[in-house]
UniProtKB/TrEMBL annotation:
Comp. bias regions, Basic and acidic residues: 25-42
Taxonomic superkingdom: Bacteria
Species the sequence originates in: Niabella drilacis (strain DSM 25811 / CCM 8410 / CCUG 62505 / LMG 26954 / E90)
UniProt key word Signal: yes
An annotated Gene Ontology molecular function: serine-type carboxypeptidase activity
SUPFAM superfamilies documented for this protein: alpha/beta-Hydrolases (SSF53474)
Protein name: Carboxypeptidase C (Cathepsin A)
Organism lineage string: Bacteria, Pseudomonadati, Bacteroidota, Chitinophagia, Chitinophagales
């Protein structure tokens, strides 16, 4: 799982937090404000309030329809066994105000890392505002944001949650051990508790409920699907996995190496590094051939190792070269096992570029063309460039959330405990025991960290009998990890989620 985890390594203060100030004219007063006398005598040092919120009111036009909504930006506690607040999670909650909320769908949104805030899908995908980028997702200036005409707020209310040490979320007190938060199963447990608190406080028990996670967030929500059922008796209608991880499903060395090839082929196709007969095909028509070769020829060859016939080895390497854009020599030198780092460095080496990890449409420039891995992740640098100014501007200006502390796009969650990751099996079990629960998976063909073919492999292993397949959907997009940054894919993927929500609200009893 480590290859799916990208956390920043800066040290963080454990007392960081936010304070709320008097709202603008069209804004409701901040909840739980301190008394005037207390404010007058307050220390100039910022202190963490794990339970506070600011409410503002807005309108967004979605698909030509004006949608009024309220936005709640604030913190809500994580409680320990004794009812003491041990952390405060920052969240942004959007609730449509011209319809009743009792039975209206609720989407609970997480990003990944672990150690990443929910900024990405918040202002890049499903929320009511959209950051300024070009149509392919690259940064533009001046920084800013606009209405999101593709937001799913017309069909569902949404809450974006920042786990501990991300966004404005913080631990309360130095004595609270990190192990309560920083690990696959600890993360699932405390977030399940927090969701219960949120659903209760905002009176959403009657709502059809959905979890959406991206990257490590898919590990998180897959585990939460079962945790919410077993520990909180909260049953979901749907789970959306955007660019899923391996979900704890074992691969083995040979399988892991083989499953990368379809992603290599998609990326080589994008950069026009393949023969004309492949380049002339549509990507979606070309990839099934590579997938078939991967499962039926490459995987058996890698499993044979040194027992593989030399003629077959060369034949397999030649085929890999035609699909990947790499030379047969490089493939043979690496025993048919090309690491992602080598691929990102090698594909455009002769042109003086590297390619991105999370989105291989992006190019980078290294200090030297030699070597076996890029100097930096070109796509992540571009995304931080594009996202960080707008989220800080938006939270302070439009949502009136004031603080002198930084919004941690990435925060330290080290050390993270990856042991006993059974989240793929958790999700399967949740679906088996809840006939209402549906699954939607969205993948970018050019994502090299959580690649599309591994996402397909997840589904095959999670449901080997095929008995759940009528409740499972998979979709691929001609973009990368955050496929929604490409405008064409944003339109398609949000409409897909909208249809998924509508289709998973049942008209009959839950039974097989």
């Amino acid at each position: 799982m480590n290859k799916f985890i990208f956390c920043c390594c800066v040290a963080l203060l454990y007392f960081n937090s936010a304070y709320t100030q008097t709202s603008k004219p069209k804004t409701e007063p901040a909840k739980q404000e301190r008394p005037a006398e207390e404010k007058k005598n307050a220390s100039p040092d910022l202190s963490f309030n794990p339970d506070a919120a600011v409410i503002t009111h807005h309108t967004v036009t979605i698909k030509g329809q004006k949608v009024p909504y309220k936005a709640v930006a604030g913190t809500l506690p994580v409680w320990d066994e004794d009812g003491k607040a041990i952390a405060g999670l920052f969240y942004t909650y959007y609730e449509r105000t011209d319809v009743g909320k009792a039975s209206r769908p609720l989407v609970i949104s997480f990003n990944g890392g672990p150690g990443s805030a929910s900024v990405w899908m918040h202002i890049g995908y499903t929320g009511p505002v959209l950051l300024n980028i070009d149509d392919e997702g690259y940064p533009v200036q001046p920084y800013g944001y606009q209405e999101n005409p593709y937001s799913i707020l017309d069909v569902a209310d949404i809450v974006y949650v920042d786990p501990v040490n991300t966004g404005y979320s913080r631990i309360v007190g130095k004595e609270v051990p990190k192990t309560k938060f920083f690990g696959v199963n600890a993360d699932i447990k405390y977030l399940g508790d927090w969701i219960n608190t949120f659903v209760t406080r905002y009176e959403r028990w009657g709502s059809p409920k959905y979890l959406i996670g991206e990257s490590y967030g898919t590990t998180r929500v897959s585990g939460l699907a079962l945790e919410l059922q077993q520990a909180h008796w909260m049953y979901l209608n749907g789970v959306v996995l955007v660019s899923p991880t391996t979900l704890g499903i074992e691969r083995g060395t040979a399988t892991d190496a083989a499953l990368r090839l379809p992603y290599f082929a998609a990326t080589a196709w994008y950069h026009k590094k393949l023969a004309a007969n492949f380049q002339q095909k549509e990507l979606e028509a070309f990839l099934p051939e590579v997938e078939d070769f991967t499962m039926n020829q490459l995987l058996p060859a890698l499993n044979k190792g040194s027992q593989l016939d030399e003629g077959i080895r060369k034949s397999v390497a030649e085929k890999m070269a035609t699909y990947s854009g790499l030379s047969q020599q490089v493939i043979l030198q690496n025993n048919l096992d090309i690491s992602p780092n080598l691929f990102w460095k090698e594909l455009l080496r002769n042109e003086g570029f590297t390619i991105g990890r999370l989105d291989s449409r992006y190019k980078g420039v290294d200090k030297k063309d030699g070597g076996e891995r890029p100097d930096f992740n070109a796509e992540l640098t571009a995304w931080l460039h594009a996202f960080t100014p707008p989220i800080n501007m938006y939270l302070r200006k439009d949502l009136n959330y004031k603080t002198d502390y930084p919004y941690n796009v990435f925060g330290s969650v080290w050390p993270w405990d990856n042991d006993n990751d059974r989240t793929g099996e958790n999700l399967r079990s949740a679906m088996a025991t809840n006939p209402y629960l549906h699954l939607l998976v969205q993948s970018g063909y050019y994502d090299g960290a959580c690649d599309y073919f591994n996402a397909k492999y997840n589904l095959w292993q999670m449901d080997p009998s095929g008995k759940l397949k009528d409740r499972i959907q998979w979709a691929g997009f001609r973009s990368g990890h955050m496929m929604y940054l490409r405008k064409e894919d944003l339109k398609t993927s949000t409409e897909q989620i909208r249809a998924f929500i509508r289709a998973s609200i049942p008209s009959k009893a839950a039974r097989y």
